[in-house]
Amino acid sequence: MFIQQNKQLHPWDSSPIESLRIFINKITDQYGVQLQYHDNIGIFLNDYKIGALLLTYYSHNNSFCNYIKAQPDACNICYCSKEKLCDIVQKASAPFYGKCPMGLEEFIFPVLLGQQVIGYFTVGEFYSNKDLVKQHLEKISAQLKIENKLLYDYFFETAHQITFQISDLAADMNILTNWISLYVQCNSLCTGYTSLKPLDCDSKNYVVDTAKDYILKNYNNYNTPLDLKQIAQTCHCNSSYLSHIFKKNTGMNITEYITSFRINRAKYFLSITDHSISRISEMVGYNDSGYFARVFKKNTGYSPDSFRKKHHKSGSL
Predict the structure, then answer these.
(1) 119 DSSP assignment
(2) Structure confidence at residue 77 (pLDDT)
(3) Sheet harboring 116-126: ordered strands across?
(4) pTM as predicted
C-alpha cells in the first residue's frame, strides 16, 4: 500500500546544510541570479559546516566583477563601496534595491537576529536601461583607462534585465535569511557560538578582503603554493603592509588564516563525503596526506579518521 508514494520519499537526507545548499541552488536556477553573502559575525571561521557552504558565495564571481577587480583603481572603488553598503544595510535593516559604482544593480537582503544585522545577501546582477548603462560605462572607461569594448562585453555577459516576479524572489529570500538567522541562534544557544559581536565593516582598506578573496579562489591549488608575496601583489601592496593590516583585521597572520581555512574545509568534506583522506587533503590544498593529517590533528585534536567517525553523516550537519 502506498508503495509509489513511499518510493518518492527516498533517499531522505535530514541534513540542514544539504537542505540549505539545495534551496540556494533552487533560487539561483529559478531566477537566473547570482548570490553573494557578506558575513558580519564570523560565521566563515566560527562554524565550518555552514561556513564552508556560504564561503562559496563569498565574492562576486563573474566575468565583469573579476575584470574590474583586476584593475587596481577600480578594485579600490569596489571595496570602498562595499564598506558603504555594509553601513547602509546596518541602518536600513530591510531589503532594498540598488546599484554599485560600476553600474550593476542588485537586491540586498539582510539577515537579522533580533535587531542585529548578522549578514546580508546580494542578489544580481541586473540593469534597467541599456543606453544609460552604456553612457555610464563610457565614463568608467575614460576615468579608469579601461578598454571600452571589454567593459561592455563583460557587463552584458554578466547582467540582465529582471524577468521574474520580484515578490516571488523576496518570499524565497525571506525563507533563506530566516533559515540562517535561526541556525545561528540555535548554535549560539546550544553550542556556545563564539561571538555574535559584529565585525568591523570599515576595514579602512580593501586589502584584507582582496587577500581573503584570493585565498578562497586558490587555497586548493597545491601546485601553486599560497605565499605572502603573491597575495601582496594581488592586493597591490607590499608584503609587510599586508602582514600588518591582515593581522590587525583578523587576529591571525596569513599562514594561520590559510591553515584555518583549509582545515575548516577539510572538516566539511570529512563530514559529508566518503572521499579518502588522501583525496580530501588534495581538495584543500595539501599534496602530502601525511602532512595534512599532522596539521589537522594539531588544529582539531583529532586525526582525520577520528573526526570522520565522530561527525560523518551524524544528522548534525
Answers:
(1) E
(2) 77
(3) 34-39, 116-126, 105-113, 96-99
(4) 0.68
